[in-house]
Amino acid sequence: MEWSSWFALAAICVMGAVSPGPSLALIIRNTVGGGRGNGVATALGHGLGVGLYALITAMGLALLITKTPLLFDGIRYGGAAFLAWLGVKALLAKGGPAAAAEHQGGTRRGALEGFMVAFLNPQLAIFFVALFSQFVHQETGWREGGIMMLTAGGIDALWYVLVALGLSHGPVLAWLHRKASMINKASGLVLLGLAVKVVA
């Protein structure tokens, strides 16, 4: 892949990563509830999910997903159910120190949640098909697919790690802990709304 093409790809991936959505809501919730480690783990898991989707797309499989209604619907409804589950969980979560204690040691769970939110998002398939259509060709192999995977997943993970680190910084985290109940309810409503939107 030429440098000019890579820079164009990276720029679009940056715009996709910084767009607010269920991923940002999850990073905020897990950072507030579980601290820096949980937020970073969630960010890395999300980046892995995005990178895997990018690789699948680059190798031509995402096109199959979007053109196979049954498979695509399975992913879509699975993603909506997972978002709804996270939303209900956020609405029922307790705020303050009790919530932080409840989330301690949950980095593995945070990473899994981050991965699932990314990988069960059918909009990623559509996004990457549209994005990679100008970069993928018949001769695209594992090397170029790997570059696309590392670019998309790396940029996504880096952005959300920075978000988690920023939110977990001393006074910021203390303020967020005081507002944890409100943040959980807002995040829950956003996640439930997005779940409805995915199904609709």
Question: What do you see in this structure?
Answer:
It is found in: Cell membrane. It holds the Pfam family LysE. The chain has 200 residues and is mainly alpha-helical. The chain has one domain (3-12, 23-93, 104-199). The protein contains ten helices and no strands. It has helices spanning 3-18, 22-58, 61-67, 69-92, 97-103, 107-119, 122-132, 142-167, 170-178, 180-199. Helix 2 crosses helix 10 (180-199) and helix 3 (61-67) crosses helix 7. The longest helix is centred in the N-terminal third of the chain and has 37 residues, at 22-58. The chain starts with a helix and ends with a helix.
Low-confidence stretches: 96-104
Distance between the termini: 38 Å
| Count of discrete structural domains | 1
What overall form do the CA principal axes indicate? globular
How many E strands? 0
Radius of gyration: 17 Å
The run of helices and strands is: HHHHHHHHHH
Structural class: mainly alpha
- The percent of residues in helical segments reads over 70%
- The total count of helices amounts to 10
What profile does the largest beta sheet have?
none
In round numbers, the mean pLDDT is 78
Strand content: under 5%
Transmembrane segments: 6-28, 40-63, 114-137, 157-176
Membrane topology: Multi-pass membrane protein
Organism: Aeromonas diversa CDC 2478-85
GO molecular function, one term: amino acid transmembrane transporter activity
